[in-house]
Amino acid sequence: MSEIQEKIASGLERHFAERGFAEPSVPELRDAAGVSLRTLYKYTPSRSEMVYAALEHRHRRYLEELFADLPTEQQKVPAALIDRVAGWMRTQASHGCLFHAAVAAAPEDARLMALLKDHKAQVAERAAAVAGIPGREIELTLILEGLTQTFPLYGEATVIRAKQLAATL
Amino acid sequence: MSEIQEKIASGLERHFAERGFAEPSVPELRDAAGVSLRTLYKYTPSRSEMVYAALEHRHRRYLEELFADLPTEQQKVPAALIDRVAGWMRTQASHGCLFHAAVAAAPEDARLMALLKDHKAQVAERAAAVAGIPGREIELTLILEGLTQTFPLYGEATVIRAKQLAATL
DNA sequence: GCGAATGTAGAATGATTATTCTACATCGTC
DNA sequence: GACGATGTAGAATAATCATTCTACATTCGC
What we know:
elongated, DNA-binding
C-alpha cells in the first residue's frame, strides 16, 4: 500500500466515522481524503469502493488498538480487552461500530456484509486465542459487542459491569 | 392514531427494516406505505419525518413483543426476555437494531439520537423492573444488546450463551 | 344529494449527485 | 532537458431525488 493510498484510506475512514455513510458526497470525501477527484477515483473507482477502503483501514487499526502489547497473564486479558474497547469508544467511535453503520446504510450490499463478518470473526478468534479460552468466541463477542453498543448510553459504568460479566468466563 | 396513520407507519417501518435508511427514495416509500405522495407528505411532511414515524411504530411493536405475557416468576424473566429478543431477530430484524441503523445513517440528527436513547432506556427500565432487579439495567442492556449484535453472526448458539451470562445476575 | 374533507395519480420544479473529461503542473529518470 | 507517469483543479454530463402542484375521485355528515 503506497503512501497516497494510506492517506486516502485514512482520510475516508475518519470522515465516514464522523459523518456516517449516507450523507457525505464524493466532493466532500475528496476533501477528507486530501487528493483530487481524479486521484480519488483512480484508487477507489466508485463511492462504494471508498467505503470498502475506509473499512479495510479501520479493520487494521482496530486490530492494532485491541491486541498490541496485551498483558501476558491470560486471566488478565479479558479485562484488558474491555479497557481497550472502552478506550476506542472514547476516542474513535463515539457513534458505535463503523462496520455495523456501513451495513445499516446499505443492507443489500453483500460485500459489506462479508467485510463485517470477517472483521468480527477475526476479532473474536484473536480474542479467544490470546485469552487462552478457545471455544468461547461467542461469549467474548457478546460482551464486547454489548459494551460497544451500551457504552454510548451509560458511559463508564458500562466498563465495570462488562468486566464483572467477563470474570464469570 | 388513525387507521391511515397506522398503515403509513407500519409500511414505512417494514420498508426501512428491509432496505435500510439511506437507499429508499420517497416514491419507493410511498409504494411501501400504500398511499399517494400527497397523503404521505400530509402525515409525514419530509423524508426525515417518515423515518421518525417508522421508528415510533417500531418502538411500540418492540415493547409489545418483549413484555407481553412474560412469566410471573421473576427469576425466569431474563431467560424469557432473551428468547423474545431472539424471536424478534429471527422474524423481524435480520439486519440488527433499527434504531442504531437509523442513527448510523444520519449521525448528526439529534432527534434520531434522542429516539434511540429513549427507546433503549425504556427497554432497560422495563426489563429490570419486570425481572425484579432494579439497578441492573446496565447488565441487562449489555446482554440484550450483545445478543442483538451477535445473533446474526453465530445464530442460535448465541441464545444459550446469553442465557448463561444472564443467569449470573 | 351537496359540499367539505380527504383521498389518488402523477407531472413539474429545482437541487443535488456520482462520474467522466479537459487542461495543466510536478517530478524523477534516462 | 525531454518525457512518461502521476498529480491538481474544476467544468460538463446525465441521472436521480425531495418536494410541490394540478386535476380529479370518493366519502360522509348534514
